[in-house]
Amino acid sequence: MPSIRRKLVENLNDSRNTRMNIAHAGVYASWKPDELGHISRYCKIAELIMDEAKALGRPIRCFEAGCGEAWVLRFLYKAHVVTKSEQVAEYHGYDIDPAILEDFWYEDLTADMRNSSWFKAFNGQITLKDLTIDPTFAPSAADDGKFDFFWTTEVIEHMKPEFVEPWIAAAAELLRPGGLAYVSTPNSDGSNKVLPKDHVYEWGHGELRALLEKYFTVESVTGVFIQQRHVTEGRKRWPDRMPDEVYSRILTRFDPHWQRVVLAMFYPEVANNCAWELRRRAS
């Protein structure tokens, strides 16, 4: 399934814009490793929101870089409606593409998602901006240290690497000490040597760890999907991570698309894509 690519009207620092058409994949059941990987991340982040709100005993303040159609909130909304719970006190989404405001619902392509009742249930706000020009999030410095959860999925690979750290640092400043962060992006140690046309730079596993550890404590790194040749490599390099019987069961239980998603968990260093769960450092 092709991604949605639109040329940005304003793009001073040559970022590249694309979005996975998750709604299309759902309607036509065209699930491949990329789509399954995206869906698994959205579900995981929604779960983390619920866990964090429960642990703190209150709704949490969240913000996201590269929010797109705010898929995490879509998944969370079902739980929100069913349980009548309040996990999110407020949500701030930031994105470079004005089109996200126009085609939020595939049933009504003219709708502005900011006016959707379900989005308002999260006290949601969307800000259109280019983080390579202005790497800030909150409306004022008074919000520093007051947010509970920040996430960004499949964003940093679409811009030049020198523009990434400023807004990662700004995000860390907004989080309270111990606040949660989630970052997912392709891993150049497991990706193809030739970049997709909508990627500018893919970070290496150790390279990205070094950046994130400046501002966060890494709680876990999970592979999101992986090529079979890297599974073979991983089983040779780290034989203790997955017993043969577990590997056999995975091959028996899942089709090749799901195998790429499930097996990636064991070998994040060489997975095509990794998800990082982080906590803001106390100082």
Describe this structure in words.
The radius of gyration is 19 Å and the shape is globular. It has a 7-stranded mixed β-sheet, sandwiched between helices. Helix 2 (33-56) crosses helix 3. Helices cover 34% and strands 20% of the residues. Strand 1 (60-65), helix 3 and strand 2 form a beta-alpha-beta unit. It has 283 residues and is α/β, with parallel strands linked by helices. It has helices at residues 22-28, 33-56, 71-83, 117-120, 164-174, 205-212, 228-237, 244-253, 256-263; strands at 60-65, 88-95, 124-128, 147-153, 175-186, 216-225, 273-280. It has one domain: Vaccinia Virus protein VP39 (Rossmann fold, 3-Layer(aba) Sandwich). It has 9 helices and 7 strands, in the order ααβαβαββαβαβαααβ.
Task: Give a brief outline of the structure.
The chain is α/β, with parallel strands linked by helices and 283 residues long. It is built from nine helices and seven strands, in the order ααβαβαββαβαβαααβ. Strands 3-2-1-4-5-7-6 form a seven-stranded mixed beta sheet, sandwiched between helices.
